[in-house]
Amino acid sequence: MARGFWRLAESDPEWVAAVDPDGTEHRAGDLLARANRLVHGLRDLGLEPGDGVCGLVPNGADGLVLYLAALQAGWYYTPVNWHLTGPEIAYIVADSEAKAFFVHPRFLEEGARGAAAVEPHRRFLLGDDERAGFRAARELTDGWPATTPDARTAGATMHYTSGTTGKPKGVRRPLTGLDPDDSAELMTFLPAMFGITPGRPNAHLVTSPSYHTAVTQFGGTALHMGHTLVYMDKWDSEEMLRLVERHRITNSHMVPTQFKRLLALPDATRAAYDLSSLRWMIHAAAPCPVPVKQAMLDWWGDCVYEYYAATEGGGTIATPEDWKAHPGTVGKPWPISELLVVDDAGEPVPTGTPGTIYMKMPGTGFEYKGDPAKTAANRLKDFFTVGDIGYLDDDGFLYLCDRKADLIISGGANIYPAEIENELMVHRKVADVAVFGIPDEEWGEQIKAVVEPAPGVEPGPALAAELLASLEGRLSRMKWPKSIDFIAEMPREPNGKLLKRKLRDPYWEGHDRAI
C-alpha cells in the first residue's frame, strides 16, 4: 500500500482522515485542498524552502493543515505550546525565524502579545474572526486553486525542547530534498517498529497536545499510513474510553500519568466500554511504575508498548513480551539506533552500573538552532544525551534511573527520585507525586516528597505517616522522604512531563547551590 498523506488523499478523497474534538469529520480530499491552497498563498507571500511557519493552534484539523502544507513545501513547521505567555511565544516565533504566524482565536490574547516578532502582514487569525494586528487566514487562501503545488519538496517539523534550564531550543534537522510522500513513507518506520500496519480501519487517538514532538510524530505517521486521526481537546479518562469505543481506536500515544488516571476509574466505568479494537497503545515521556504497567497489561492485554527516545533522535522499544520478561525495562535499541552508557569521564560502564545514557541514529543529524555550544556539549563523538541516567542488563535491555539534574546526593550517596516516586505512586491515596532534594546542613540534601492526594483524600500528617509506612520492606529507609508536603494539583505539562523545578526552586532560594 502506498504511504504518504498526499498520495492517499488523491486516491481516496472521501476517506475520513481526521475527527475534531467536537466530532466534526474532515475528509482527506478537503484537507488536501486546504493544504494546497495554503502553499499557494504562502508562496505568494514570499516563503521559500527552509523558511519557518509557526502555529498557535489547538488539537484538530487547523493545525493538521499547517503541518501538511509545510511538509510538502519544504518549510519548517513549529507548533507552539499554547500554555506559554506572550513573551515566551514571541521568543519561539523570533528564534524560529518564522515567516508566517497562525493563531487560533482561543489563544488570541497571548498570541497577540507574541506576534510582535512577526511583521503585521505575516500574522494570521484562523476562523472567521478579524482582529487588529492580524489578517484573516482566509485572505491568504481565498482565490487560490486546490491544485497540487509545483516543485514540491519535503519540509520538517522543528519542535522546541522544554529543557530544565535556560530558554527552549529548536531541534532543527537538515532538509532532505525528497519528494514529500517519499519522505513521509520513510517516516513510517517509527510505527512499523511497533508492528503497526497501514490502511483502514485503523484509527489513532491523539490524547495530548500536538505541540509535543512525540504526539506530532506518532499522529503524523499514523496519518501517512492511512489511519484516521481522532483528536481529544483535553485529557479526560472516561472520554478517552468513549472515543475508543465509538471510533474503534487501534493505536495511540500515551503517558504513565494517563494510565494512573484510567486505573483510578471505578470498575463499573472501566467495564462499560468496548476496548477490543486496541492493538498498539504506546507510552513514554516518563518512567512508569511496574505495578501500573502490569495493571494496564492485565486490563488491555498485550497491546501496551513502551519506548524511550528524545526529540533529538534515537531510542529503544519494549514490546509487551519484552517487558513481561524484563519488568521495568524501556527496551532495546531500535534497529537503526545505538546506545552508550558512560561514566562522568565518558567511559563505558559495566553491565548493571548506572551511567549517563547517550544515543545516536544514523542519518538524523540535528542542531539546537542558534546554540552550537549546547549542541556540542550534549555530544560524545557522534552520540548525544539529554541527561538521563540508566543502566543495561545482561541481555542489553535499558532501565532508566532518573534525569541527571534530578539526582539527590545525600551524605555522599546517590539517590534517584524516580525510584521513590514509583513506590509512592502506586498507593491508592496518591494521585501524583514528585520527589527531589532540598538543602540540609548536615547531609547536603534531604529527600522531600510532594504529593497530590487522590480525590476525596484528606491531606495532612496522618496521610504522610501512612504513605511512609507503606514503604516499609519495599524501599531502603535511607531513601524514605524526610518530609512530605501536599499540593492540590501537580505542575505537569499535558504530555506528562513533571515541572519539578517549579516545586524545588522555592526550597533553594537563598542557597548558593541549587541542584
Automatic annotation (TrEMBL):
GO terms for biological process: fatty acid metabolic process. One of its GO terms (molecular function) is medium-chain fatty acid-CoA ligase activity. The keyword Ligase applies. PROSITE patterns: AMP_BINDING (PS00455). InterPro entries: AMP-bd_C (IPR025110), AMP-bd_C_sf (IPR045851), AMP-binding_CS (IPR020845), AMP-dep_synth/lig_dom (IPR000873), ANL_N_sf (IPR042099). Coiled coil: none annotated. Residues 419-497 form the AMP-binding enzyme C-terminal domain. Residues 6-364 form the AMP-dependent synthetase/ligase domain. The keyword Ligase applies. Residues 143-174 are annotated as: Disordered. Keywords: Ligase. PANTHER family: ACYL-COA SYNTHETASE, MEDIUM-CHAIN ACYL-COA LIGASE ACSF2, MITOCHONDRIAL. Belongs to the ATP-dependent AMP-binding enzyme family. This is Long-chain acyl-CoA synthetase. It comes from Nonomuraea maritima. The lineage of its organism: Bacteria, Bacillati, Actinomycetota, Actinomycetes, Streptosporangiales.
